[in-house]
From TrEMBL:
PANTHER family reported for this sequence: PROTEIN NRFC, PROTEIN NRFC HOMOLOG
Ranges where the 4Fe-4S ferredoxin-type domain occurs: 3-32, 47-80, 81-110
Pfam families xrefs: Fer4_11 (PF13247)
Superkingdom field: Bacteria
SUPFAM superfamilies registered for this protein in UniProt: 4Fe-4S ferredoxins
Keyword list, A-Z: 4Fe-4S, Iron, Iron-sulfur, Metal-binding
Protein name per its UniProtKB record: Polysulfide reductase chain B
Organism: Campylobacter aviculae
UniProt cross-references to CDD domains, sorted A to Z: PsrB
A molecular-function term among this protein's GO annotations: 4 iron, 4 sulfur cluster binding
Length: 189
């Protein structure tokens, strides 16, 4: 499989349920984030005010700089396209944190090794078939699926919407697809 995610900012209401669920499911230490949704705005003049929402998390790059710089292969792409960290192989050099152009990794203050989104691979995905953030989103702004399966609903979503991927010019080939807010600005560079 090739797991991917769509963040539809036209549907997002900035409720932060996804971020809270992620924190709980993956026991993320206080003050650190695998996932956050940034709210920009309001913009415009009353009564025509609008907000923009932007998801910050690992972009699940197909050509991942965090993987190529890792000297011990502790950072790796698994059989389902998930970029993950093997804690047994990690030597704590932190090269991967510096190499990520999306600031998606952080040093876990409990484990003392890098941490980041892995689509809840060992937690919610394993138990319920989808990441925790997807399961709690009240507006279905998050769609998770398999890019190798043409019958997967994520296929329809990508075929029927315009989407962007952050910093595409770097050649990282992110598998987090963003449907921009029609009313707002595209600010994904
Ligand atoms: S967003 Fe950063 S941590 Fe995630 S795969 Fe890409 S380079 Fe690695
Ligand atoms: S901190 Fe660990 S995962 Fe990151 S580059 Fe170094 S050995 Fe690899
Ligand atoms: S749970 Fe859904 S609607 Fe709420 S902030 Fe996250 S993506 Fe947006």
């Amino acid at each position: 499989m090739k797991y991917a995610m769509v963040f539809n900012s036209q549907l997002c209401i900035g409720c932060q349920s996804c971020s809270i669920a992620c924190r709980s499911e993956n026991k993320v230490p206080d003050g650190l984030y695998r996932l956050r949704v940034k709210i920009q705005g309001p913009k415009g003049l009353f009564p025509n005010l609008i907000f923009d929402f932007e998801r910050f998390s690992c972009q699940m790059c197909e050509d991942a700089p965090c993987v190529s710089v890792c000297p011990t292969h502790a950072s790796f792409i698994d059989e389902n396209g998930i970029i993950d960290i093997d804690s047994d192989k990690c030597v704590g050099c932190l090269y991967c944190i510096g190499a990520c152009p999306y600031n998606a990794r952080f040093l876990d203050t409990k484990t003392k090794i890098p941490n980041k989104c892995n689509f809840c691979k060992n937690t919610h995905l394993k138990n319920y078939g989808e990441p925790a953030c997807v399961s709690v989103c009240p507006t279905s702004a998050l769609i998770f699926g398999d890019l190798n399966n043409p019958k997967d609903p994520i296929y329809d979503v990508l075929n029927n919407h315009n989407y962007v991927r952050r910093k595409e010019h770097l050649g990282t080939k992110p598998k987090l697809f963003i449907i921009p807010n029609k009313k707002g600005e595209i600010s994904y560079e």
